[in-house]
Amino acid sequence: MLGGKAVLRRAVEALASHPAIARVRVVVGPGQQELAREALGDLDVGTLIEGGAERADSVRSGLKQIDGDAVLVHDAARPFCPAAVIDRLLAPLEFFDGAAPVLTVRDTLARAAETLSESIDRTGVVRVQTPQAFRLAALRQAHEAWSGASPTDETIVARAAGLSVAAVAGDPALEKITSPSDFARAEEWLASRLVPRTGIGFDVHAFAGDGPIMMGGVSIPHPRGLAGHSDADVVLHAITDALLGAAGLGDIGEHFPPSDPQWKGAASERFLAYATALIRERGGIIDHVDCTIICEEPKVGPHRLEMRGRIAAVLGVRDDRVSIKATTTEGLGFTGRREGIAAQAVANIRLEFSE
Questions:
Q1: Is the pLDDT of residue 14 over 70?
Q2: Domain CATH for 104
């Protein structure tokens, strides 16, 4: 997982979102299908393709299952692929058999065992990244003709077959994730692309019928209940609306209309979990939610910590990222007359910057 999303999903999304890419297919190792489906969720990648023991075996398996004029071969371990790199890769295919993104080597190069030995001239030396673009028929033929040891990427196979491969500017965002320190670096890069956003939610429910009352996912004993199409949890409704607002996803009524009978008596935790999932799917992070309950009765204080813990569990955050407060209107208005309960919430989230 990386910023709330599987690395594989991020890699696929980066390609699938580009207008020039018609289809993305995924090649996985034997026995990895279930993990891959879980990681990909509802992304449309067709049937998963089973690869082999080596990278080249997996690429060949993938090439047999696709059609079209051009293909990009990409490492799932490079989850961040800028659209501009894809543009740079596709443009040379009019004149070359393939193209690969590269980065100039700036460090001193030398051979080393226990100690450093001779230096290596870095003039003209580059680091080759993926995705790599090729004419599909040409790459197939190159793989069929390959007879050497397992290659580390497609440019080796292509050049051995005499194909011309253009070098285009790569991007540091395409650094491969291999070790734990790479995950830390990727998390830092991702955090730099997150933009703070704030949403406000408000909800009201009138007293009606018999208790208890649901507030913040907690059943609170009370002689009167609250009127509502679902379980009338005024706290969770306000927080759900705040989260949806922060993400620019409308309001709770759009996603769970009162006119829909399937939400009759539904637990409001489902609404909160839904809003949370939408934000996570967009690579978002929930930083903090703050809710103020406005009522004369019942007393909120004895249940505040339980509400806080329940909400934090649904949001998947620590308890200290949830604040629950209560106040009265000093006898004024409908809450002051004990006709109902209101709640106001503020949610602070961070979403990925979209170019």
A1: yes
A2: 3.90.550.10
